[in-house]
Amino acid sequence: MAAARQQKAKSKTAGRGKKPVAKAGRKKASKASKKRSAKRKKIYKYTARTADKHELYEESVQNPESDVKFLTRVFKKENGRLPLGLREDFCGTGFLCAEWVKSNPERFAVGIDLDRPTLDWGIDRHMKPMGEPGDRVDLLCKNVLDVNRPKVDCAVAFNFSYCTFQDRQDLLRYMKTARSSLRKGGMFVLDIHGGPESLEEIEEDTDYDDFTYVWDQGPIDALTNHTHRAIHFSFPDGSRMRNAFRYDWRVWTMPELQDLLREAGFRRIDIYWEGFDEDGEGNGIFRKIKRAENDDSWIAYVVAWL
Ligand SMILES: C[S@@+](CC[C@H](N)C(=O)[O-])C[C@H]1O[C@@H](n2cnc3c(N)ncnc32)[C@H](O)[C@@H]1O
User: Fold this and answer.
1) Which ligand 1 atom is nearest residue 144's CA?
2) Helices (H), the chain
3) 183 by DSSP, 3-state: which?
4) Which of the listed residues 161, 177, 189, 245 should we mutate to test ligand 1's pocket, taking the one with most ligand atoms within 8 A of CB?
5) Whole-model pTM above 0.85?
6) Pick from 22, 75, 142, 272: most CB atoms within 10 A?
7) Atom 11 of ligand 1 has which residue's CA nearest to it?
8) Is the peptide bond before 196 cis (omega within 30 degrees of 0)?
């Protein structure tokens, strides 16, 4: 069990249910084959010079299809109807907004992010091919604290983005804002990374077919839980893209989040815990639980009901 938990800790911050390449299956090239490949000019899909950081991020971190399935399942079970409106806070490229509206013609989405270039990248990649932004998707270049319309069924803050709020009052204000954007029966969903390993200073590699995703956890201030986190990418040609994304965060604990959500006025809070596969890796399947073991590293969804 301990070994399984140890393994489960690996690649927790890479995307939920994503399929990294198993490191054990990779062979070291022999000297002869290295020589041969030096003669041939290798074509790499990605190098640090040619790769696009948003494309790599979406490939390694996000899994909007499974997010849409999860949100639909949980909302439908509670309300007996399909959720139609989504608010994606800290939306970045709006990948989830795009998947949401593609999944049903009646659905609409609003994405909110402060970073104009990231939103523009998402508009070109995800929105324009489906004739949006328009009637069904709106991407707002705003602070999440300043938006509470349109009213939606699901408001989400994924990939721990709310950790940008380091002061209790700010996080509470944010939760109240998200709550005020919900329609009757609405839910606000956050994800959280916890367990002893989430507080350690570590660098963790996860291999994908054409690049390696590196999650970098800086030291944590024991008095404030303040920390720096970063994502780097490295490539088969030996090049590296350091600090493709950098975060200045406070690590919030599960009890703190639940206390704040109650204080913000949410009626009930459900916790969905990620299961793991036969190799001890997170399997992207989340089940509602009442108690949980504090594994080395775990991921959960916190679902707060209006
Ligand atoms: C970790 S990324 C999240 C991307 C995506 N939502 C995901 O699930 O992977 C964090 C994003 O939050 C944005 N951001 C940070 N503070 C914000 C704020 N107060 N209001 C709106 N966006 C903010 C940043 O510009 C960045 O694009």
Assistant:
1) 20
2) 2-8, 31-39, 53-60, 64-79, 95-102, 116-122, 168-180, 254-263
3) strand
4) 161
5) yes
6) 75
7) 90
8) no
Is pLDDT of 11 > 70? no
Cis, peptide link before residue 64, omega less than 30° from 0: no
Which residues, in sequence order, are bridge partners of residue 245? 231
Which residue in this structure is represented by tokens 């049903």?
104
Residue 208: beta bridge partners? Answer: none
Question: What's the 146 CA to ligand 1 centre distance in angstroms?
Answer: 14
The single-letter code of the amino acid at 155 is: A
3-state helix, strand, coil in the chain (%, to 5): 35, 30, 35
CA distance 62 to 39: 37
Q: Which two tokens stand for residue 219?
A: 């030291």
Residue corresponding to tokens 């007996």: 80
Buried b (16+ CB within 10 A) or exposed e, 107-129: bbbbbbbeeeebbebbbebbbee
Q: What is the rounded CA–CA span in Å between residue 168 and residue 173?
A: 9
- Cβ of 97 closer than 6 Å to ligand 1, yes or no, is no
Tell me: pLDDT of 33 over 70. no
Tell me the CATH architecture of domain 58-195+251-305.
3-Layer(aba) Sandwich (3.40)
Digit-coded pLDDT (tens) for 58-85: 999 999 999 999 999 999 999 999 999 9
